Amino acid sequence: MDQIMKSYPEKLSRSHIKFLKKLFPDNESCFDDGTLLASGVDASRRHAKPLALVRPKTTQQVSELLRWAQQQRVPVYPRARATNKVGGCVPVHRGVVVSMLGMDEILDVDSRDFVAVVQPGVITADLQKVVEKQGLFYPPDPASLKISTLGGNISTCAGGMRAVKYGVTRDYVLGLEVVLPGGEVIHTGGRTHKNVVGLDLTRLMVGSAGTLGLVTQATLKLLPLPETSASVLIGFENLSGCLQGAEAVFGCGILPAAMELMDHNTLKALEIHSDVPWPEGTGGVLLLKIDGSAQSVAADLGQIEKALSAVHTTFMEQGTGDDQERLWELRRVISPAAFNLAPDKQGEDVAVPRGSVAKAIESYHEIGRELGVTVLCFGHLGDGNIHVSVMYDKLVAGQSERALKAKKEIFKSTLFFGGTLSGEHGIGLSKADYIGMQLADAEINIMNGIKRVFDPLNIMNPGKVV
Amino acid sequence: MDQIMKSYPEKLSRSHIKFLKKLFPDNESCFDDGTLLASGVDASRRHAKPLALVRPKTTQQVSELLRWAQQQRVPVYPRARATNKVGGCVPVHRGVVVSMLGMDEILDVDSRDFVAVVQPGVITADLQKVVEKQGLFYPPDPASLKISTLGGNISTCAGGMRAVKYGVTRDYVLGLEVVLPGGEVIHTGGRTHKNVVGLDLTRLMVGSAGTLGLVTQATLKLLPLPETSASVLIGFENLSGCLQGAEAVFGCGILPAAMELMDHNTLKALEIHSDVPWPEGTGGVLLLKIDGSAQSVAADLGQIEKALSAVHTTFMEQGTGDDQERLWELRRVISPAAFNLAPDKQGEDVAVPRGSVAKAIESYHEIGRELGVTVLCFGHLGDGNIHVSVMYDKLVAGQSERALKAKKEIFKSTLFFGGTLSGEHGIGLSKADYIGMQLADAEINIMNGIKRVFDPLNIMNPGKVV
Questions:
Q1: CA spacing 20 to 30 A to B290: which of A177, A378, B233, B266?
Q2: ipTM score here?
C-alpha cells in the first residue's frame, strides 16, 4: 500500500485541472483556497485541504471522475453535510472532495411498494416529511437528521433514537447504485423487501464510509406511518433504578420506539441550562416513546404505568401529540447544556450489551473521578449505545492529556463488558489508533482484502479506517 | 479457477482417511456408502456422493479440518438438516460433508442483554421455545423452523411469514464465530445491538451459503415477547381485492406480524384437501396476524375491521389465542394440498415490489395458461415474496419441458416488475443458470473477488452460486 500512497499527487497538473473543469463546468468545480479549506473539515473539527472540490449532478459525471481518478491515482473524498464526528470526510491525502449535495432529488415515493428512491444529497428529515404526507415512515433518526443527508447516513450506517424498535439505516437500504473506482456503475440489491441473490453487497456498502465506492442512488424501505405516539419521562433515584424501569417495560412485551437514558451528570447539566421537571433526589431519568394506533398507544401507556408501579420512581410525566416535544427538548439540549460543566468536550459513542449499561456507566464515572474529569453519560439505553462525554478544560494544565487517557480507559472498560468502540459514529480518524483493541488482525486482514477488491489502488477515502 | 477445480481429489488417500479418523474418532467420521449417499442430498432432491462425512463437536475440530482441507484442496460442504430447496447442501465436487448437528447447544440466553448465543446445530423452533419461556422472542420463522437449524438459517438468510414486521435472519445476527479456509477463527460483530466498527462482515456471512467460511457460533438478537397475537382470515372476490385489502390495513398505520396471500388456484387446492371456511365466489384470501399487548391487539383488530369495511370482502373470520391455529393450518397445508392439482411441482420463491404483486401473479397465471401447466401462487404478500408453484405431470409428454420453460418465463416477468429471482431460498444449483438474468458481470465479479479473499482455493461449498 505504501508504494501506492506515495504516488498520490502533491498538486494537480494543468491537464488535471483542465479535465476537472471540463467535466464539472462553472461552479461545479472549485479550486480557490477558501472553498477548499471549507470543504476539508467535518464535525470532528479535524481538517485537511484538498486539491479540488467538485459537485456532480449526475451518475455519469461521478463515473467519469472515478475512471480518471483511478488512472491518475487521485484520492477521492465523498462528502455531503459533513456532520461526521470522527473525521470521515477529511481529505487527509488531499485529492478531490466530491460534494454530493448537487444530487439531492427524491426520485420516487411509492406508497404501494413502500419504497423511496433517492439521490444521496437528500436531507434525511426532508425525505421523512415527504413520505409522512403519504402515510409512510422512514424510521432512522440520527440526531443530525435535519442537516445530514441520506448518502451520509448510508455511508456511516447512521442510527438514532428509534433504533431500539426500528433498527438503523442498514435495515432500510434495499438497493444501491454505486460507482466503483475505475468508473464502473453497479447496482446492488433492488426494490424488493426480500432478496437473497448473491452476496449481500448492499449491507457491505452501508457503513463503509466511502472507502469502497461512491453511492449515487439508494432505494429505501418505508413502513406504514404509525397513527400516533406518546412519550413518558420517568425519574429514578439512581442508574440501577433506570435499568430496573427499562426491564419492567420490556418485561410486558412492549418494544418502545425510543428509550433514552440520562445519568446524574446529564441531569446536573440540564438543571443549570433549563427548567427541569424532575424533583430533587432524582439521579437518573428514562425517556420513552411508544407509537402505534391511537388505541394501542393508550393501551401500552397503561401497561407501562402498571409495570413501573413495581419500581421505585421519583416522578413520571406523560406527553402526547405535540405536547411530547417539551420532553424531547430536554434530550436535544444535552449537548449544548454539557458545556455548563466544563468548556471542552471529548465525545464517544460506545455500545455495550444492554444488561451491562449500568455497570459500564459506573465504570466510566469511576474513570472520570480517577482522572479528575467529569463524565456525562446519556443516550440509547434501549440498544446499549451510550454517548459518553468527557468534559474538561484544556486551559487547565494536564486536563487534555487526562481526557485522552480517559478515552482509552473508557474503550478498555467498554470492551471488558463485551461492547464496541462505536455504535453509530464509526472509526474514521478519531479512533483509528484504537481499532486493534477491538478487531483481531485476521478480521482486519479480511476487511483490507475486501477493500482491495473494490478499490485496488486505494483511491476511495484513503487514510481512513472504516 | 478451472486449474484449482481439477485438483480436487477423486478419492481420499489412506493418509487423508487416517487424518479424518484421528480428528473425528468413532462415529464422528463416516465413510460407508449408505451414510455418504444420505449425506449428499437435500430438499431440492438433487444429490451427489461425498468422500467422507464428519461430525465436529468443537470449533477446534472445524479449524483443524479447514486447515487440512486448504492444504489438501479438499472441498468442504457444510450441512445441517438440509432443508435447503436449491441444492445448497449437495457436494457436487465430492469432498467432505461437515454435519454441524453435533454442535447444537444453546450456550446462553440473556434476558437483560436480549441476546442468545447458539451453536449452529440448534433447531430454530427449539431456540424459540427456550427464549419464550423467559419472555423473549426470536422472530425469524421459515416454514422449516421445526426441522431446520440456526446455522442453516444464517447460511441462507432465512425469511418467513413474520418478515413483514420483523425482518429476516440477517436482522437478528449480531455476531458470528467463523472458521475460515486455512483454519483461522474470526469473530465478526459482537453482543451489542449497534456496532459500526469495520466493514459489516456479519451480514456478508449471512446468506453466503457456506461459500466463505464455516459458522461455528452465533450471537442473536432477541426482542421482548409480544403479550399476545390475533389472526384474521379475509376472503376477496379476486387478487386485486386482496391487494386493496392489504393497502387498507397498511393505510391505518398497522404493520401486521404476517400478511399471507392465497390465490384462486391455491384456494382450489385447499378446497379439495380440507374443509375451508370461505364461501363460493372467493377468488383470493388474505391471512393476517397482529401481535402486541392484549389491549393493543384488540384495538388493532377493531381498526383492521373498520379499514376493511371500505373494501369488498366475501367473508372474514378472526382467531385469537390457540384458536388461531386452525386458520394457520390452512396456510401450512398448501404445499401438500397443491399435489391435488397435479403430481409434480416446480417451486420458485420470487419477490417483487409489493405494489406489483397482483400484476406479477396475473402474469404467472398467464404463463401457466400459455404453457398448459397450473400455476399456484401464495406467500408473503406483506413483503412481496411469492411462492410460485408450477404444477405439472411429468408422465405427460412435454410437461417437464413446459414446466422448465415456465420457470424462465416466471423469472423474466419477475425481473420485468423489478423483482428478484429469490426472496428466501437462494440460488444454489437450481437457479445457477439464471443468475445472469438478474446480476450484471460487474456485480458478479465483485462477489467472486470477495469469495477469493475468504477462500482463495475455492474449497468452501464449491460449485455453488450464492
A1: B266
A2: 0.95
